[in-house]
Amino acid sequence: MTTAYSIAQRFVGMKEVLGASSNPAILAMLRLDNAWPSGDDVPWCSAFVNYVAWILRLPRSKDLRARSWLTVGVPLSLRECAPAYDVVILKRGAGEQPGPERIDAPGHVGFFGGMDGEFILVLGGNQGDSVSLARFHADSFLGARRLA
Fold first, then answer.
1. Average pLDDT of span 87-112
2. CB 73 within 8 Å of CB 59
3. pLDDT of residue 89
């Protein structure tokens, strides 16, 4: 069965281009709903999730802010998340961060890959400047959404 996660896996290893050049695939993702990014050196995790959702004709945030995904789909708790089917939204940055009611604060978004102890596995873009599977502490969890 084709899922957002299975489509996202096809992009694993795609990276930003160092220097003045940009990866054209990442630029296409960034510009799907926004004209302003001129390079791949901007946060693009939300652009990646929007692009995968666009491919599957799923609901999208159409916004480059990671926390914009808190307004899309059906809200879920972390315990309700199903690997391969759901989007997770996380806090980003050190120190005290605002809660999920604040959409314009730093965040990160990707596809839920499961749990590894106290860590959330996230398949996403802009993780180490590439598409990868990464671990994030469960304390950074802001919310999750089921898109379909």
1. 92
2. yes
3. 98
Residue type, 6: S
Nearest to 92 by CA among 24, 45, 147, 131: 45
Alpha carbons 78 and 104: distance in angstroms, whole number: 22
Domains along the chain with CATH numbers: 4-146 (3.90.1720.10)
d(CA 108, CA 93): 10
Assign 54 to helix, strand or coil: helix
Distance CA 68, CA 49 (A): 11
Confidence of residue 35 (pLDDT cuts 50, 70, 90): confident
Distance CA 108, CA 101 (A): 15
Strand ranges inside the chain, DSSP E: 74-76, 86-91, 107-116, 119-124, 132-137, 141-146
User: Could you give the dihedral angle defined by the CA atoms of residues 14, 17, 60 and 8, in that order, rounded to the nearest 10 degrees?
Assistant: 0
Residue 67 identity (one-letter amino acid): R
